[in-house]
């Protein structure tokens, strides 16, 4: 199946990715880091997590298949003045590194978008040293809940699941990580979960803007129309549902992330 990144790289999409930090996206990994570790961040996006992790380790490389993501990463790296991180364009399926090069491979919100996640994990295993750590974290869209009830958001979630799968991905990846990691040949597999919750005015507005812009301006809405999943009017109604949710008193939105730590066998 051909892969297509469901979210695209529209400005608000990349801006939201740049809000991710080691604290909110890699807390399950942080206790295992050592100051001498050589780390690979696969699917690094704009590099915000990568550069946070750089403060914990000896060196880190961020790779992403999207050139625009690497440009954004390089700019942020220059702004922060971090000298033990660098970025390059690469596919998760063909990492341009020798066997047994890294102490840790980390991937955040990557596997849900891949048609062959186990193949990517096997490639991660190849570049890990014997006994080294894999750390992966992915959302599970099937766990999304919101209040007050908004039928348009229910419908958006149905269409998102359909669209993501048509693009080769698996939007409920969070619950499948341990299985995929096992199939890729890793051992000592430990699973955990954590949540992202949107309740403060700033968080609610950021979450609303993220999805309305994806529907009305970025790739998502256009793809729903081109694949005959919805009409332009229906896409606009989905976006209006996000507005109604955000404008309600005390809006709530939350969902789970699956997290897995594992090791390459010695």
Structure description:
With 266 residues, the chain is an alpha/beta fold. The protein has one domain (11-263): Rossmann fold, CATH 3.40.50.150. The protein is built from 10 helices and 8 strands. The chain has helices at residues 11-17, 22-25, 48-54, 67-80, 117-127, 151-166, 177-183, 201-216, 219-226, 232-247, and strands spanning 38-42, 59-64, 85-89, 102-108, 128-139, 145-147, 187-198, 252-263. Strands 1, 2, 3, 4, 5, 6, 7 and 8 form an 8-stranded mixed beta sheet that branches. α6 (151-166) crosses α10 and α8 runs antiparallel to α10. The longest helix has 16 residues, at 151-166. The chain starts with 10 loop residues before the first helix and ends with a strand. 44% of the residues are buried. The mean pLDDT is 95.
Task: Set out the fold topology.
Elements: H1 11-17, H2 22-25, E1 38-42, H3 48-54, E2 59-64, H4 67-80, E3 85-89, E4 102-108, H5 117-127, E5 128-139, E6 145-147, H6 151-166, H7 177-183, E7 187-198, H8 201-216, H9 219-226, H10 232-247, E8 252-263
Parallel strand pairs: 1-2, 1-4, 2-3, 4-5
Antiparallel strand pairs: 5-8, 6-8, 7-8
Which range best describes the helical content: under 10%, 10-25%, 25-40%, 40-55%, 55-70% or over 70%?
A: 25-40%
Sequence of secondary-structure elements: HHEHEHEEHEEHHEHHHE
Low-pLDDT windows of residues: none
Count of alpha and pi helical runs: 10
Biggest sheet, in brief? 8 strands, mixed
CATH topology: Rossmann fold
Task: Determine the structural class based on helices, strands and strand pairing.
Answer: alpha/beta
Average pLDDT figure: 95
The coarse overall form would be: globular
Q: Report, as a whole number of angstroms, the end-to-end distance.
A: 34 Å
Number of strands: 8
Instruction: Identify the CATH class.
Output: Alpha Beta
Domain unit count = 1
